[in-house]
Amino acid sequence: MESKSYIFDPRPSFPLFVTIRQYWTPQCSPDDPDALTLVFTHGLTGSNATLVPLLEDLFALLRLSGQVKIRDAWGIDLPNHGHAARLNERELMWGYNIVFPAEEYARAVHLCLAGLGRGVDVDFSSRKLVGVGNCLGCIALVLSQTYQPALPYVSMILVEPALSPHHTDPKSRIPLLPTEGMLNKREIWPSREAAYNELRQRRAWTHTQDLRVLEQLVQHDLLELPTAEYPDITDGVTLNPTKSQQLAIIRDELSSTKAFRYLPHLCASIPVHLVFATLPYPFLPAAVKEGLMSEGTQGRHASVQYVANVGHPFSATHPQLFSDAVWNALCMLNGCAFAQKLRSRL
Q1: pTM given for the model
Q2: Given CA atoms 163, 169, 172, 173 in this order, what sign does their dihedral have?
Q3: How do residues 239-250 score in pLDDT, each as one tens digit?
Q4: Pick from 103, 100, 102, 108: which is nearest to 151 by CA?
Q5: Which helix (H) or strand (E) holds 315?
Q6: Which residue ranges in the chain fall short of pLDDT 70?
Q7: Which among 332, 331, 7, 314 has a CA at the least distance from the CA of 134?
Q8: Do 207 and 146 form a contact (C-beta atoms < 8 A)?
């Protein structure tokens, strides 16, 4: 798999740099106007680096099938994640460290794909875009279509979408994450090796043998010290995003509600595919998922998949299952063989 990095500069209309990476393989169809352009948006603590294992598995299915035509894939980073976090570290102290609305991610996605800035020499206006969002990234994808000009999406795939109404009934909305536990977690280590050894022991990573995403995260996403937030610590590495930026994202409740309310209109215009993990998870309880399908999409979603025996963070812990779900949704657009059938040929 090959890739190319871009730094998108939308200033002065938007104050933050956006880091983007393009991915392709020899099996892609770069000159076919009917081929799909996949646009990935990630969840909290994800980034372009953590996309690598997912896309390796997805492109492996493309080699096996040859029926789905993919032009290329693009990962767009949340501007306080990945390499963008370093580029924007001063601006992120303006007030983004108090609340970072997910709608800012949506704006960044729209600006990039609409070409309203400098640094990406690609015209997406004639592309057939398929948005693939994970958790928080689903909010960004959905709301990116609320700006003008409208983007040429032909479909969206929303994996564990963090969308819910602002109801007084706590069962029907996404519960606030417990910030105390996040505040108590360590975020500075003397080396990347020390960070890897500790992160490997956290709950999400003790239930999987596939550590490719964790390896990418530690290798590419941890920030070398010092940083704007820790100017006096000169050795070691720190979390990216930092705890303060994670909390700032969690404090934003409005963006999720706005995306939830726009979802039925989106489903009326393009096929929207939903993917859910089956294991219970406090952040996205079953009632929220049911409400998303009944009240959110109003039953207009094109399909729903349930990924067995995994929890909410399965994009990181089980990247092959994530790529299989994305492939299956693409097959519903193109009528090709599902991932399980293709893998049985190996």
Answers
A1: 0.93
A2: positive
A3: 888 888 999 998
A4: 108
A5: helix 314-317
A6: 166-183, 335-338, 340-346
A7: 314
A8: no
